[in-house]
Predict the structure.
Amino acid sequence: QVHLVESGGASVQAGGSLILSCTASGATYTNNCFAWFRQPPGKEREGVAIIYTGDGDTYYADSVKGRFTISQDNADDDTVYLHMNNLKPEDSGIYYCALNWANYVFGDRFAPDLYKYWGQGTQVTVSS
């Protein structure tokens, strides 16, 4: 069983920055695919960023390109970060970390059904 824990959520002003972290424990895969999703109030969950820890490939939602960066820890393959810059009020929501074996994540990589493990989420609130 894999357990994911997110941290780093906070309340910030528009234009500010945050770094979210996600650490996986348990029987993770040799080649993981980590993803960050978010769920704004009253809206459906949406994919934000993805990283394949085997080759470092990354993918981003259009709404965050140029502002968010997903990265993995240099010393720990089971920890990833989401660096969020120039935050906007529309970035507010609960941010979730998700994980699956990289070979299972293809096609519509932001489809939530492709991810087997999920964290409990961390709240990000951006005020104008």
Summary: The chain has a mean pLDDT of 94. The first strand starts at residue 2 and ends at 7.
